[in-house]
TrEMBL record:
Cofactor needs: Mg(2+)
Protein name in the entry: UDP-N-acetylmuramate--L-alanyl-gamma-D-glutamyl-meso-2,6-diaminoheptandioate ligase
Annotated gene: mpl
Pathway(s) annotated for this protein in UniProt: Cell wall biogenesis; peptidoglycan recycling
Species the sequence originates in: Chitiniphilus purpureus
NCBIfam families registered for this protein in UniProt: mpl
Length: 459
């Protein structure tokens, strides 16, 4: 079958493309504003990518059009598909029907930490020899790809693994299906990592998102298990609406808990009983909680906690999660996907614990739909409080970042021109500083621009 994917360069749809190609289908796709790492992955897979939305693409004569949620009515290619009555479906529905059906699905949901926790869980199952399939909204360093089909487990190399680990996004499915993506996945094991208000472009309030999470809970079977952050009141409200599965909590004393902390990690407890000591280099309380969730979910799939802990000691994180892009003139430049105020605050807190009193220069692009609407602009000063200096790129925003960041005083500056921002950052930077770049997009290649300018000025 020839599948043409609309919006192929998003991390989710790029993963769909990889899975479809591995399943033996001919895959092509189209998108705009292409940037790595997904464009690199598509190129490596040999998938033809067409720029833009020209209806001439229908001459490819695809058997099925898989439509990403970036597509809207009025898009010329989508309108041509509708006018001609051609077959189309959403990415989540295609995945649920053609890849996840009959599998033991382990789904990771939550406002924050989905990509990292999904990557951790997939790696634990891989380390245990279970050869899971997975689809992650990023590229885990342990695998080098964002998606793959299940393989033969080491215990039975003539079979195919029943396990599939998936990042379960609450964003809507498509312009013709306004349910959250995760209702298509029907997991047996589901992690509910946390739940805050986000996606203000499609959800009116937190209650609306809680309703979608409860729809996910309704799909977990009676012999399934929910792994739930016990410290989240919002998730408590979700479960109070009804729960038909076993529940294990993490982050609280009666469930999975962080024990004694050490310079190189922490002890893992379950019900107050030691399970092992996790030694790793990841930063932040949020990553410790992500680890507990992944260990708990893996246990439901049959992996002993001691083996899961050993696996995480070899976990290499995900691209664009506190990824060091380089060092120039004594200045370290990081790339991170943080864009929600809570994620920005936790990312900065983790870096602060790592670098101590060294200066942190935060470089932020408020790019998500929620941020563009200005829904959370009042929370930004508090989220950025741990930074010594803040540089905000405010191009194409519907609000003034300088006004929103005014509580930070002279520590914060905003820019509409990317070159001017780069000049300001490199002029302010000193040897020993840490420049943390945060965006959920490509940010105009600012990381390379910063490193190049720093190296030039330091020469």
């Amino acid at each position: 079958m020839h599948i043409h994917i609309l919006g192929i360069c998003g991390t989710f749809m790029g993963g769909i493309a990889a899975l479809a190609r591995a399943s033996g289908h001919t895959v092509t796709g189209c998108d705009a504003n292409v940037y790595p790492p997904m464009s690199d992955q598509l190129q490596a897979l040999g998938i033809t990518l067409i720029e833009g939305w020209d209806p001439e693409q229908l001459k490819l004569d695809a058997d099925l059009y898989v439509v990403g949620n970036v597509m809207k009515r009025g898009n010329p290619l989508m309108e041509a598909i509708l006018d001609r009555g051609l077959p189309y479906t959403s990415g989540p529905q295609w995945l649920g029907e053609h890849v996840l059906h009959g599998k033991w699905v382990l789904a990771v949901a939550g406002t924050h930490g989905k990509t990292t926790t999904t990557s951790m869980l997939a790696w634990i199952l891989e380390y245990a020899g279970l050869a899971p399939g997975f689809l992650v909204g990023g590229i885990p360093e342990n695998f080098g790809v964002s998606a793959r089909l299940p393989g033969p487990p080491s215990q039975d190399p003539h079979s195919v693994s029943p396990f599939f680990v998936i990042e379960a996004d609450e964003y809507d499915t498509a312009f013709f299906d306004k349910r959250s993506k995760f209702v298509h996945y029907r997991p047996r094991t589901a992690i509910l990592n946390n739940l805050e208000f986000d996606h203000a472009d499609i959800f009116a309030d937190l209650t609306a998102i809680e309703t979608q999470f409860h729809h996910l809970v309704r799909t977990v079977p009676g012999n399934g298990r929910l792994i739930v952050n016990g410290g989240e009141a919002s998730l408590g409200r979700v479960l109070a609406r009804g729960c038909w599965s076993d529940v294990e909590s993490f982050g609280v004393a009666e469930g999975w808990q962080i024990g004694t902390r050490h310079d190189d990690g922490f002890d893992v407890l379950f019900g107050g009983e030691p399970q092992g000591r996790l030694r790793w280099a990841l930063l932040g309380e949020h990553n410790a909680l992500n680890a507990l969730a992944a260990i708990a979910a893996a246990r439901h799939a049959g992996v002993a906690p001691v083996q899961a802990i050993e696996a995480l000691s070899r976990f290499a994180n995900v691209k664009r999660r506190m990824e060091v892009k380089g060092v120039a003139a004594g200045v370290t430049v990081y790339d991170d996907f943080a864009h929600h105020p809570t994620a920005i605050a936790t990312t900065l807190a983790g870096l602060r614990r790592k670098v101590g009193q060294a200066r942190i220069l935060a470089v932020l692009e408020p790019r998500s739909n929620t941020m563009k609407l200005g829904t959370m602009k009042e929370a930004l000063p508090g989220a950025l409080a741990a930074a010594d200096l803040v540089f905000c790129y405010g191009n194409n925003l519907g609000w003034q970042p300088a006004e929103a960041l005014a509580p930070l005083g002279a520590r914060a500056r905003s820019f509409d021109d990317l070159q001017a921002l780069v000049h300001a950052v490199t002029t302010a930077a000193r040897p020993g500083d840490h420049v943390l770049v945060m965006s959920n997009g490509g940010f105009g290649g600012v990381h390379g621009m910063l490193l190049t300018q720093l190296a030039h000025e330091g020469a």
